Structures are given as C-alpha cells and as structure tokens.
Protein 1
Amino acid sequence: MKITRKDVEYVAALAHLELTPEETERMREQLDSILTYIDKLNELDTAEVAPMAQVLAEAHPEAAWRDDAARPGLARADALAAAPDAQEPFVKVPKVIER
C-alpha cells in the first residue's frame, strides 16, 4: 500500500497538526516505509509460532508484570500553578472537538 500526500494531510487534519510541505513528504516516506515493512512481515509463515500476549514475558519475566503500587505524584497546587490556565480545582484547556 502506498501512502499519498493526501493520506498524510488527512491524518494530520484529524490530529489537528499543521505540517509544512517538507514535513508532509518526510511523514509520507516514513509511513510508506513502515507499511512496506509490515507487508513483508505479513508474508512470513507463522503457522508454527505460538501466540503470545507480551514479547517480554518469556525473555524477561521480571519485566512483564510488576506489583501495582501507589507512588507519590505531583501535588494539586503544583500542577495548577504550572498550568497556563486554571480555575481551582480544574485545568482549563482549549476546545478541540467541533460539532
């Protein structure tokens, strides 16, 4: 599957990204390269390969799962102080979805 400039521009618009013509072309080349690689992977015979949920599970079992432990986070006052626009206790953000 070949990615066109129009495809990149469509996805960029969905993500509210403004790309220069150079960025659009670079993104088109990169996405095209990724999809070409995926097409090659789809050609592989995986009939004898056991399905797995996580790649790390067998190679590094200690990295696959860890205990879910609470850790101290950013204090609310610090988070609100760092926000460009806040109204206690909320951070105000610009509207991004239009109807």
Protein 2
Amino acid sequence: MKRIYIFLLLIPFLSGCTDFLEPDQVNLVYNEVFWKSQNDAERALNGVYALYRGLMIDGNWYERGDVTTGFFNRGWNGGSSDALYRPGDFSSASTTQRSWGGLEGLSEWSDFYKVIAHANLVIKKIEDMPDDIFREGKKEQFLGEAYYLRALVYFNILRNWGHAPYISDAIESSTQVINDDLTPVLIGRTKDTDLSMKVLEDIEIAVQSLGYSLPGSSDWGIRASKGAAEALSGHANMWMYFLATRDNLNNPGQYLTKAVSSLESLRANGGYSLETYSDAGALSRLYKGQSSEAIFELNVSSDQNESYRIDHGGVVRLTSKVVSLDGDATKDRASSVNWVPMSQKALIYPDYDFEEREGDLRANLFFDAWHSHYNEPFSDVSSTSTDRTLVTWMKKYSMMTVDASRAWNEYSAYFAEANIPVFRYTDALLLLAEGYVKTGQEGNAIAIVNEIRSRAGLTPYSGDNLLHEVLQQRISELIGEGQIFYDMVRNNYFPNPQVMDNARYQQQGYYWPVSGNILVSNKMIAQTPYWNGKTSW
C-alpha cells in the first residue's frame, strides 16, 4: 500500500528539471555505484533541497497562501489569476469563472511527489549505508534533514489537498509500480488525519536527529536544523489539532500541547531574534537571506547559481515593479503585478493613518505607495487609476541583480536575489501566541503580541478578542509569505467572506481540486468532493 501509479511518480521523476536549477546530483540512476561515500550521500541530499527549491520557485506557495485571501488583486495586464480570490460561478457547465476549478495547473500535485520520490530514495539509501563511512554524527544529521524535507513536502500536500496518496517506499524498479499482469499499481487518497499523523512521525525523527544551527554559520536558515523541525512541528501539530477538533477525535488537545512545547523549545534554544523595523535596511536584512529570524528559507542567489530570471516567472514577477533597463518608466510593470486595493488595506494594517501616512511601520516597510486610494487597477487607459506611482505593490522580494548576459531588448532581465521564507521567527512567535490563547495562557500570548506591536510602532494591545488580534498580527507580518490562508482555514476566520462561505468550508472546499491528468491516469483517485462538477476539466 505504499506504492503509487507509475505516471504519478516515475514520469515526473525521470523528466527532471529543465532550467538552470537542475542539479546534477538528482541523477541517481546508477544506484550500484553511487552510494559509496559520505560525499555521495550529501550530494543526493542536496538534490532534495534543489528539487524542493525548484518546486517553489514559481510562486505557487504565494498564490495558494496569500492571493486566495482576497487581499491582493491582479493587475490590469498581468499578475495572479482572479479565480484565486473571486467567488466561483458554477451556474452552468459553460461558465468560465469557476474559481479554483478553473486553475488546473495549481491542482496538479505530481511535482510535489517528485520531491517525495527523491526524499524516499535518499532516506532508504543512507539508512543502508555503513555507519563507518560517515564522520561522527553525519549519517544521523543527513537522515534528519531528509526526514524533515519529506515531512515538509507532505505538509504542503496536506494543507493543499488534504486527502492525498501517501508513499514512503523508494521507487527503484518498475516491478514496484507494475503488477504481474502488467497493469499499473494504483493507490487512492489517504485520509487527511492519517496523512497528518505520518507527517508528525517524520517530524519527530527530524527533531531527534538534528541539532540547532549556529547564528552566522554558512548553513544558518538554509538547511534543516532542530529549530526548523520544531517550527514545522508547531505548524503540523496546530493543523492536526484543527483536523482532530473538526472530526471529533479523541484528545485533540494533545496536539495543541505538543505545538506549544515545540515552539517554546525553539524560542528558548534556537538562537533566533527579531529584526528591528526602525531603519531602511530592515527589508534587505529579512529577505536577502539568513537574517536573525531565518528558521528555514530557500536559498536564492545568482552568485551561487541558485536564482531565476524574474521575467520568466516566480514570486518577483507576480509582486514587484522593476526599473526598466532601457530607462523607459512605462516598462516598470506597474500594470502587470498584484497590488492591494484601498478596500483591503484596513484589513491588513488597521492602525495605519492615511492622512499622516504613518502609524504601523510595516505598511511602508513591506509595501510601496500604501497611502494610495486606488480601488481599480492602474492602466494608461483607466478612467480612475492613471498614476503608475500609486500602485500599492509588495516590496518583500524586490531584491534583484541584472543579468549581464541579457539580450539588448530584454528590459526586465533581472535575477532574483531574495530568499523564499518557509518559517521565520516572527511566524513561530505568533503561532506560539495562538497556542497560548487556545490553552488558556493569555498572559503569555499578550506578551508576544505586544512585542510584535511595539516593533511595528504600535501601542500595547487593549482589545477584547485576543485570538483575532494574534491572527491580525500574523496577517500584518506574514502577508506574502505563504501562511495567511492556512491560518484562516485553521481558525475558520476569513476577513473577506467572499473567498470562503460557510457551505464551502463545511464541505472542505478549502482543499484544492485534483487535476484532470491525475483523475484520468489513476481511477482510484476521486475528485475532492466539493469540486465535483465545479471544475473546467
């Protein structure tokens, strides 16, 4: 039962990456001669990191975790699909606005399973290697990293699709995926609570196998560590608490307790600290990479051949204006990026003073032109929004360098230079505050909330709904980092009600549909129930 249809795993695995992120170390077809040394094991492990980075480079984590909230709108000429945040029209089979059911590319999970396949192989092969070929502690460390990465990818799958196939065997032969009668081995979807338990098992191995990273070390924040595993434990246990409560399972509080203890350990022992927001260098420190808040992030650096051209895709293309390389201000992509309309701004920074253009420091730190009152996308032909300097766009990933080998007529030929955050310290602290609220430790939660508010230039908390305040601070801090929509699902709290009505929520419509390619190739995979009859495929 731990095998999966060949088209679901082997074909994506064998196809490999086709861009410059393709790592040589992913080619593991010569198993008999490859797994001989510690260096072999490390190269193979690096391949898992590279595959995961390649999976996340296109910005799907941002579109699923942020654009779905309704806080961002697409630009006049580009950006994310508005199907991510507008209610679907399912009135007839011919309608084109079918919400997520019109986004088959984001409904495809095969690339996630490509990473899983490689992680499975790395785990098996390293476990089988003799202990004496490794330096002291290295075998355990490598296995801890591999288990962490597999848990992380399955956690991504869990939050996106819920009920999804689970496979832990290393696929090394066609006999594992083809029956004796030459029919493919098939496997259906594993229930989300069972998949969640598998994630927690891998996390526990990672926590026990890894040590804390050292601040300032070369691996700080960009390789798995005990702190990264504890952050993942906090998130995964909070998600399991949500699922266990939803399904009335026995003792859901145990997962909440575990989340709190994991995050407390991270806070006490991880060596992390909050970055200050009081100077202009804060943005670069946070997102250039390996800041004091970096628990785990995906390295993006053109100097290390781990970057991507922003004009070819990725989160920078979706979010950032640029300076055109021919000096033409009209090519700054102002009409082609996601932006925040005025109607959404009070939901993101409710304490910002538009008349004085001050209040919450994060508004102007993380965004350009936050003071803009535009509710319509900028366009040169718009009747209301014609000033390109008044597009409110997110600056978090707007670090880039020019591609020296660009063609003469490539005006946005930049390499991305901002790391992709997976977990940062602010996220962990506010998740801990959420855990404190839910376990009755409100004093501890308020202390964290006030620390976050103080850094943002705000007065101490004085409201009457502490959980909502914690979730508000998560919105204000983590917008654009792939977390917010899952916070809303976990707490059934949607500031924009049009993105999730109660009927959809009760039918688990917060999970994504499955692509037609998967449904056709594996008859044991059924469509996510809410999406039956609601997709364009």
Protein 3
Amino acid sequence: MSMDPDILRDYVSEARELLEQAQSDALALECAPDSDAVLASLFRAFHTLKGGAGFLDADALVEWTHHLEDLLDKLRSHVLPVTPTTIDVILKGLDVIQCMLDELGRGVYPNPGPSDLGQRICALASVEDVHTSPPESASENVRPIAEQPTGVESAESGTLQAWQKLKPDGKVGVYVERVSEGKDKGAVCVESASKAGDDAASDTISDEEFEQVLDALYGHKAPGVVPPAERRVMDSQVASTAVLPGALPQATAPAPVTSVAAVKTERPSSTSETPESTLRVESARLDSVMNQVGELVLLRNRFLSAMQTTIGEHEDLARIAREMDLTVNDMQSTVMRLRMQPCKRLFQQLPRVVRDVSRQLGKRVNLQFVGEDVEIDKKVVDALSAPLIHLVRNSLDHGIETPADRVMLGKNEIATLRISAVHLGDKVRIEVSDDGNGIDAQQVKQKAVEKGLIGQEEAARLTESDAIDLIFRPGFSTNDVVTEYSGRGVGMDVVKKTTQSLRGRLDVHTNLGTGTTIAMEFPLTLAVLPVLYLRLRRDVYAIPISSVSSLIDVDPQRLYQVQGRALYQAGPEQIVPFVDLGEILHQRPIQLGTEPTDGILTERGLLVVSEVLGNEDSVVKPIDFLSESHWYQGATLSGKGEVVLILDIANLKHSQAEPKRGVA
C-alpha cells in the first residue's frame, strides 16, 4: 500500500475501537430490539468504518460495510425484524471486518469477504416491506451529491452548502463538525475550503443529506456490490448519544439465551472527550518512558544508599535528597497511571463468547459484570485476554448445567456467570464465578491417575485443594470426548502460566453442587515492584512485598510434622506450610535454635530465612539463564548496586499444602 503509515495506523486503531463498540451494540440490540438509539449507534459505526476505508481505497472493506449498512437500514425502518438470526449475521460480518483490519494493519489491501455470508447479508438487506413506503418529503430532499448546487449557487439555494477541495492525490476533502446548541438538534455542518482559497461556505444540513454526502464520497460501488437502497432515511436519533448495553430496557419478548448485566450502566457521551483532551500514543513509547523511569528509580535507590553515611552531616544535601525522592515517586506514579486501563477493556469481548458458546451448548446464562471501571496495567489486560476467554468457556462447558438438569436440581434454569474485578490494596483481583455443579475432587484425582499424571499412592495423599490444583496440569481434562470447547487437556495450564508470568496468583474455590470461583490476583502495575530483601546465610534474595503478610519470630516448639509435611502454627487457629529456604535453595536446612533465623509469613506459608534486611522499590529484569528455573521471577539491582534474584513464592511452595484454618 502507498498510504501514509501513520494515517493507516491511526485508522486501524480507531476502527478496532469502532468494531468493539459495534459488537457491544449488536449484543445490546438482541436484548432490546426496539431501541432506535442502539441501531443509530451501530449504524454510525459502520458508516464511519466505510468512510475511512474509502479514503484508503480499501474497496473490499467499503463493500462489506456497505452491505451491513443496507441490512441495518432495513432494521431501522422496521422492514426487517431484529431476530437472533440477524444478530448472528451482523456478528459474523463484524468478524470479517476484524480480519480485514488485520490485513490493513499488515499493510496489504484486504481480500473480499466470504461469498456465502455476503449473500446472506444481501438477501436480508434486499427484503422489501410492501405495506410501507418511504415518506415523500424525505425522498425529495435526498439527492446525489452531483445534483447538489455548489459554489455561489449553494449559498442561494439554502440546502446543502459544501465546497469540494481537490487535493494533489485527487481525494476530496470534506470537513464536518457538529453545529452549536443553538441550531436544530440533529443538524450537521459540512464545510470545505475552495481550491482558490476563497472563504469557506457552511450551513446546516439534515441527517439525510449528511448520509447522502458520505455515500457519494466513500460508498462508491466496487465490483460485485449490490446497489444501496435509493431512499435511505436516517433517524433523527443518529445524532443521539450512544448508550451502554446495560442501560437498555429489557425486551418484553422471550429472553435470549444470554443476557448481560453490568453494575455501571452508563457511559460518557462520545462527545465528552474533545480532540484537545485526548492524545493517542503508541504503547511502545509508554513502555520506553516507563523503562526510563524504572532506571531513574534504581539510580535514586543507589544515590540514597551511597549517601546514608554522610547525608546526616549536610542539612542541605538531606533536603535535596528528600525532594528528589518525592519527585521521583510522583513521576513514577504519573507514568504508571498512563499505563492503566479499565477492566472493561478486558471484559468487553466476553458477552460475544458467552452468547455463542451457550447457544451451541443449549444452555441459558445470565452474564454479570462487576468492577468494569477498576484499572489495571495494560500489560495485564493484553496478556489476560485469551486466558479469561478460556476460563469463561470452561465454566460454560464443564461447570454450568443444561436448563433441564438445573430444574431437576432445584436451580433456576438460567445460570449465572459473574465476572468481577476489585481493588485489594496494591493488587487487583479478577474472579470468574458460576453457580454450576462445582468441581469433584475425587473425580479429578481419578482422571489424573487414568491419564498417568500421578500414581495411586500420590493420589491417596492429596488433599482436596491439591487435587483441584491438578486441573492446571498440562494434558489434564475431565472430558472423555474431545469437543470444540474442551477435552484436549490444554488451556488451564496456560491460564496458570500466564498468571505466574504476570506475577499473579491463582486460586480455586469450589463447592460441589453449588458452583466454582476461579480468582486471579495481580499487582496494580508491573513496571515497578516493591520487594523485601532477605539474607539466606551469605546470599541476598528478594521477594515481592505484596505477598508478605507479616514478620514473626520462629519458635521451634510450633513446628510439626504431619504425614511427612512440615507445618507451623502461626497463630491460635492458623496452621501454615513451613518453607525452609535453606533446604530448597542450598540443599541444607536451616538449624532452628542454632542458626540466626527470621520468619516471613506469606500468603503461601512461613518462609524461614537467616535475616530480613529491608524493603525497596525495584525494577524486575528478566535473565535468560533463569528461564529454566521456576523458583525465580527475575532479578533486580539493589541500592548497593548488587544483582539480587527475586524469588517466586508460589513455585517455591508448590509441593506444600495450602494454608489451612484450624489446628489438625
């Protein structure tokens, strides 16, 4: 393509956002088929996509969006009813647009869409209503742009005033803006400068005329395109503000297979963000800035460490050091906020997944969202997309029963699938919960033995929690038959690996017969990691401070051996695994009562070390030779300039039992 790469990149980026909104609108339309506002929002998305595609000469995309636009025109005029079939066609049409945008993103013109789906769209778009005809007043006002007066004639006619300016590349430049509040609602102002540099002429036009302008400019017919409807009348609500699916009234018709509910049901108007308040920046540039801030944090740490011996003797130097510390902290916090994105960006793909899968499985599901405005690091949003989809599909396939089975069990035939996000201090917890049949630990152990993942003796020793953890083993599946959604033994292990790679933790809470919750916890940001330094004999290590509950003195009298496992009584009613880092990392256990010891109570158990040194903000650096070891998250540079390995608590303890309540 000869198109400017910056223009192409901007279009593809904005088009993807339009596509996401169009998918949300399509799903909302299924729940509220009589909503003109949703139809208008969906129509605008296709119209904008078509306009940009025409500017890029992406004829296949222009053709495809034009067909979908014709279909929506039938829905808006109520010639064609909104049914699950029409929604299916629209969603599949959006999938084709996604593929076309992927091709544009690679710098190539997209190929035409699949002919069979195109024929279905055209067939629906060609339906005519013999009982109604377009209003004469509307049809009289809609004329091709070639018939519209131009130049001085347009000023005299009082209809459409628009001058066209030919650019060197032959493109037509048209400048469009919404008129002020004092003019008619729904009006649009179209203006352009003349080639000779005369004053621009402008006036208001109706929505019908505005649509005709865009059709004439960008909706040119490509080979194989079905001619657009001759009379297309745009609702006055096209100029209205888009609304979230959750804000729509529920349809009075029979409930669809899947419904979507959200705690927050309103979103700001699309006009709330002006060009002056929003700036698009490549994520790579933000990553570069964050890396530089990380290096600044390390330099700050080294400076403060080096000045500790002399800073008390110089008051001015001490004040400068404090001010520098505050400034670096503020800069770090500001840059980290730039990387934060609402969880809504992560959740927005799930309604489509739930709708498609539940329909194919014959299940009825009410999808609920909580905490869509909770913000999390962009890296987590990007990395967690596929794992979250797998968790949802797994819940639909394995956890939730069919309507008939649910009725037999005394449950509501419509299952509830809840996706939530909540702040927990410096972490974010994301949960996928269902009210299905839960996980049978005994069945899990039996399947693991059958597949050769564990032996009979090991299975007998496993606690219920350990048995449930087997679902994250590669190759494990409780399904005997391979289906489109499960049975291959892949997916859950990827969920666990992804969670760990993001410095997160994964927990499963299940009750047989009542449901399952799979929870993932992640740090708010992955750019800077607060760590606690510790010494193990002569070596220094670090652990994420977010995993530390408290520091305690280790009492040898509270150490017990239960079925070959070391447990420690951390409190009156708290028994936790006893993790001896000396035994794990040095193959030489720490001698309690003989060697100096400190205890670090973590979410995974009690770590026994030689000494706790202190805490510090750090920047995690990946090290190649550590990739084969599951004990380390990476390395960092301490304030003294030393390379320190960061331990992965979950993997250090993976052979230990989960913390238990109550003394056994």
